[in-house]
Amino acid sequence: MNRIALFATPLLALTLAACSSTGPTQVVATAPMVATPVIARPMVPTPAQTTQQALLTTSVSNGFVDAAALSVMTAKDSAEANSAQFYALQFGRPGAPRQWAGDKGTTGSVGVGPYVRVNNLDCRDFTHTVKANGQDYVKKGTACREQNGNWAVVQGAA
After folding, report:
1. I need a surface site. Which of 14, 22, 23, 71 has the fewest CB within 10 A?
2. Residue 50: pLDDT band by 50, 70, 90 thresholds?
């Protein structure tokens, strides 16, 4: 039974046949292995990956929100404001503010203007309003989308 199992694999049968001592010596040749060449190509992120990375690196603490508002905002407030700021700049329509809500009644909205091409970059005016502790904080400015997809404030007024 074990002999049948041994010869069930063709490679093993060929190997054992080559070891036979009762006949002329047989030479078993192996075929060369053909490998597909590996071509190094630069990794190009997909548009979805670029958008996700830009969302993670566009931060309201980089001039998108009034500094006084940042001091009273929680981590959740900042995360919600970041998301709203990015999506308003990236996909928002002029005249249709993007609303957000954070912790303990803190809310905000981001309004954007039309796209304007400046030095080969897409730019937009924005107004980010934060309502926290019964006070309104307003930040107006202009942001441009950099080559890597990140949005950066290029001009801002309190």
Report:
1. 22
2. low
